Amino acid sequence: MTCAPCWQIHNHCLALKDNLGMAGTKDSQWKHIQYMRQRYGTEEFDFMPETLVLPDDSEVISDRLHKSPQPWILKPVIGKQAIGVSIVTNKKQLPNFRKPGMAGKRFVLQKYVTNPLLVNGRKFHMRMYLILTSLSPLRVLTHNEGLVLFATQNYSTEANSYQDMKIHLTNSAVADRSNAEHATNGWLLSQLWAHLESQLGVEKVVAVKRSIDDAFMKLALSAQLQEGGYEERRSGGCFDLLGVDVLIDSQHSIHVMEINVGPEVVSQHPKTHKANELAHKAVLNDLIPLAAMSSTPEHITLSFRSRLTRFMKVHNLSLCPANVFVLETAKCLKSLDVDDLWKLHREMEMLGGLRHLYPAADTAAHYTQFFHAGLDARNYWALKWVAAVRDDDS
């Protein structure tokens, strides 16, 4: 693969942009989660509802619906604005792949969460943002702001309600198509947290937020190649902005419904969708300077040089000789390591409403076990750096 020029910043990381990747089609997303469940245990990767793929699992779902007519949500593997989405409770409602025009069509069936947490009687989901600014070393962020979208009618689990998408779907396009008064029903994520704190208490909301952070970090780890690591790119040479749809149930467990590789960041109706507009601006105002930031040595600041000197002294490090092969275990920093640390240093100075999920000193030990090929030197030094910053600031 030809290396991109140093000044190029790609708006998709190669390991994520393909339809077969973690941020690809909905069936591919589930395939990655399944792999992580098999490798590391379902209990660690249980944040996405059970999913079946059609037509591959047609016999399985037919048998499941025959034995227990529980609702499943049917979605095309590629789609947006809730087009083609329905709720299935019996096998007669499944797609007929023998019909003309159905050849090559694929769908996912996701177990429907029947006990969503409600606000003012209505179901909602959160559109939150997962951001990767580097794959090697891994840097994963999320934004404190986001969007909350509501169904336009009060929630019901009556059997005849499942065909009314205004009750069960929270996509803003459904509200727009219904011409409902509630089409302007979006909240900012910060508004939802304030509301839930008043209803559930601060401790419960903090626990929900931690569960979401954990799921987001594991989504990023699920994007690894199965043989280990991520597809190589120069540090700082790409970024990904992923829109993640999250639902909270009445027991305050979280469910990741899907990941969107091209989330809407420009509101189509800024006058009526004010929350959309505000959330998009908040995310982009912090993301664009971060993504466009130069990582070339001539931009290195005095504050970084000072911190790097202290860091190297504490860890008894020197600079590796240029153009000389050194082992990963060598007690010296390569020029690439210094570039990595500089990029991380600048990100930490420019976060705004963004937060690093990785590297993060407080959670590093837990997530290291999910690196297929183990922790390499570049991720190791990044973790040491954030730990040093934490200790200096405490």
Task: Tell me what the structure shows.
By secondary structure, the protein is α+β, with helices and mostly antiparallel strands. It is built from twelve helices and 14 strands. It has helices at about 15, 25-40, 60-65, 165-170, 170-180, 190-200, 200-220, 275-290, 300-315, 335-350, 365, 375-394; strands at about 50-55, 70-75, 85-90, 105-110, 120, 120-135, 140-145, 145-150, 185-190, 240-250, 255-260, 320, 330-335, 355-360. Strand 5 (about 120) and strand 6 form a beta hairpin.
Task: Please describe the topology of this protein.
Elements: H1 14-17, H2 26-40, E1 51-54, H3 58-67, E2 72-76, E3 86-88, E4 107-111, E5 118-119, E6 122-134, E7 139-143, E8 147-150, H4 165-168, H5 172-178, E9 187-188, H6 189-200, H7 202-222, E10 240-248, E11 254-260, H8 274-292, H9 302-314, E12 318-319, E13 332-333, H10 335-349, E14 354-358, H11 364-367, H12 377-393
Parallel strand pairs: 12-13
Antiparallel strand pairs: 1-4, 2-3, 2-4, 5-6, 6-7, 6-8, 6-10, 7-14, 8-9, 10-11
Helix pairs in contact: 6-7, 10-12
